[in-house]
Amino acid sequence: MTEKTILDPQVEELTSGFLQKAGLADLPEDMQAEYTEKIGLEIQRRIGIIAMDKLDDKAAKELEAALKKNPNMTHKKLTKFFTDNIENFEEVLAKELDEFLKDYLEKIKAL
Question: Rounded to the nearest 5°, which phi and psi values hold at 2?
Fold first, then answer.
């Protein structure tokens, strides 16, 4: 039995909504959980990539120092850091994640 990855509640909510749009909400619970985890991890990975791309050098160094001090920083604290240090972070993130989910949905429909 594999250990379940803990996803940020907002990411989990976004992933669940995506499964509805993709028509995957009727899958058995174990398959839904597997999709939720895989898609959720990819979303979290992309959030990190988007954020690191948008941070200036000073903020990137601050984040690196904060993560060394507290490697288990909560999603909430990371999101606050990104929001405080990246102009229009919420809008940038929403746009990027929307594009990712649209691409993912097109790939699913093509199967």
Answer: -90, 155
Closest CA to 94 of 85, 83, 105: 83
Distances (CA, A) of 82 to 4, 18, 88: 26, 24, 10
- Residue 20: closest CA among 110, 99, 97, 108: 108
Burial class of residue 60, CB neighbours in 10 A (0-12, 13-18, 19+): middle
Q: How far apart are the first and last CA of the chain?
A: 28
| Joined tokens for residue 16 | 């669940």
Q: What is the pLDDT of residues 6-30, one digit of tens each?
A: 567 777 788 888 888 877 788 898 8
Per domain, the residue ranges of the chain are 9-110
Which residues, including other chains, have CB under 8 Å from residue 100's CB and lie 6 or more apart?
42, 43, 46
The pTM assigned to this predicted structure is: 0.74
